[in-house]
């Protein structure tokens, strides 16, 4: 197993490969969480590479090696800019994998927290995603953005956008909102993990999305799974991590 630090275009990333590197491999692109970085998901990469899968761990916009030294409030106010940038960059990473002859077939995608949110948005616009793992993520973009703005205003922050800009942002987010585009999942394998005590990314909206999606998977119930842990907060358990990597490997290697 090898971990290589690389830069593709302007994106710093870790390219984790099993021992049989040098040929096209089934591949997972895995996104990290808010204020985290690519190195923080190496345990997911280890489990996947051990099964013969290449893993690409990119640094998201304003994170890791792309940090611009913003404080917590500044980076939080740019949350959706970061998510939408990651969705756009996912297409670039997929194209690079094909151009470099590194990927067999199409990639699976996953992520933790903000990375899970990114994954759900990507599922609405990229039909080539083979399978997904959403770890404490959310797909209700518009509802989540409205709640975030209300929370900031309640704390006394003056949001640096006009009413017109706010409406434009919400209209853009609606394009990627999973609950508004359930048909785009098209029966592709998807695994959810979420702690019921999560106060960062609330449990209920994601569970509601799962229940709505499940109706579309009636003929293929084995391709959608939601693992809930009653006492867990905003931190994925080892069980969840192992289940997610096994899920991705199952559908990439079949």
Automatic annotation (TrEMBL):
Secretion signal span: none
Keyword Hydrolase: yes
UniProt-listed Pfam families: Peptidase_S9
Annotated GO MF terms: hydrolase activity
UniProt keyword list: Hydrolase
UniProt domain Peptidase S9 prolyl oligopeptidase catalytic: residue ranges: 107-239
InterPro entries from the UniProt entry: AB_hydrolase_fold (IPR029058), FrsA_esterase (IPR050261), Peptidase_S9_cat (IPR001375)
Highest taxon, organism lineage: Bacteria
Entry protein name: Alpha/beta hydrolase
Originating organism: Planococcus wigleyi
């Amino acid at each position: 197993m090898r971990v290589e630090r690389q830069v593709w275009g302007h994106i710093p990333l870790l390219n984790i490969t099993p021992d049989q590197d040098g040929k096209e491999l089934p591949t997972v692109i895995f996104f990290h969480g808010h204020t985290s970085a690519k190195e923080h998901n190496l345990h997911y990469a280890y489990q996947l590479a051990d099964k013969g899968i290449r893993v690409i761990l990119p640094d998201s916009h304003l994170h890791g090696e792309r940090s611009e030294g913003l404080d917590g409030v500044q980076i939080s106010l740019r949350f959706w800019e970061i998510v939408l940038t990651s969705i756009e960059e996912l297409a670039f990473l997929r194209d690079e994998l094909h151009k470099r002859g590194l990927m067999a077939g199409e990639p699976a995608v996953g992520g933790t927290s903000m990375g899970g949110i990114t994954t759900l948005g990507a599922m609405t616009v990229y039909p080539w995603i083979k399978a997904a793992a959403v770890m404490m993520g959310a797909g209700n973009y518009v509802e989540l953005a409205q709640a975030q703005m209300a929370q900031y205003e309640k704390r006394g922050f003056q949001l640096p956008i006009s009413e017109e800009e706010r409406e434009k942002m919400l209209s853009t987010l609606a394009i990627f909102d999973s609950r508004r585009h359930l048909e785009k999942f098209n029966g592709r394998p998807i695994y959810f993990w979420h702690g019921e005590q999560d106060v960062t990314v609330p449990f209920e909206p994601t569970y509601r999305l799962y229940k709505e999606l499940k109706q579309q998977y009636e003929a293929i119930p084995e391709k959608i799974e939601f693992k809930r842990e009653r006492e867990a907060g905003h931190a994925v358990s080892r069980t969840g991590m192992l289940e997610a990597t096994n899920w991705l490997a199952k559908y990439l290697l079949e």
